[in-house]
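Deliverable D5.2: sample structural annotation.
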Amino acid sequence: MAEGGDINDVIASFKKFNLVGLAKGKDPNKMTNQAWGKMVQDCIGKDTTTKQRMDSSVWPYVSDKATKTLDLTNAAKCNEALDRAAKVYKEIKKSKDSEEDIRKQLAAKICSSNPDVKKVAQSSTGGVGRMTDTSGYTGAHKERFDESGKGKGAAGREDKSENTGYTGQYKGSGSYGKK
């Protein structure tokens, strides 16, 4: 099994990668193709050949045909995924190591890494704070926000009028003849 652990450690790492970008209501024990691709990219290799081969030569054989997911509660399927990944990795890298050694290396890489989630960058110019501060707005722009600074949406951008009158575009209902 994996160095410093067993298949349960690999499954725990699979679950960490599966939780990144998992939609609400989806089962965290069902690994998606997207999560598999993220795990391959972060742990095994970022090069295009490795990603494509892992997606085309491993994922279709270990995922459930109906749901297109990998059941992380099924240790046999996770073992099969790791075995197939080791076989494909050996072919790609043309390694002289045995498949068992490569499997151990892959398991160690998977267990030791976390999903690489990018952080939101802070603006270097500092203009974002100035743009979101509504106290500096004048004229029609200040009407677009409420007291807390939250936007009013369409209600803050448009002058609402009733489309009543003789024609559909007549906006001044009841104003005819008044001065």
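Annotation notes: The two ends are 90 Å apart (CA to CA). Residues 1-5 have pLDDT under 50 and may be disordered.
The annotation will be released with the project's public dataset once the embargo ends.
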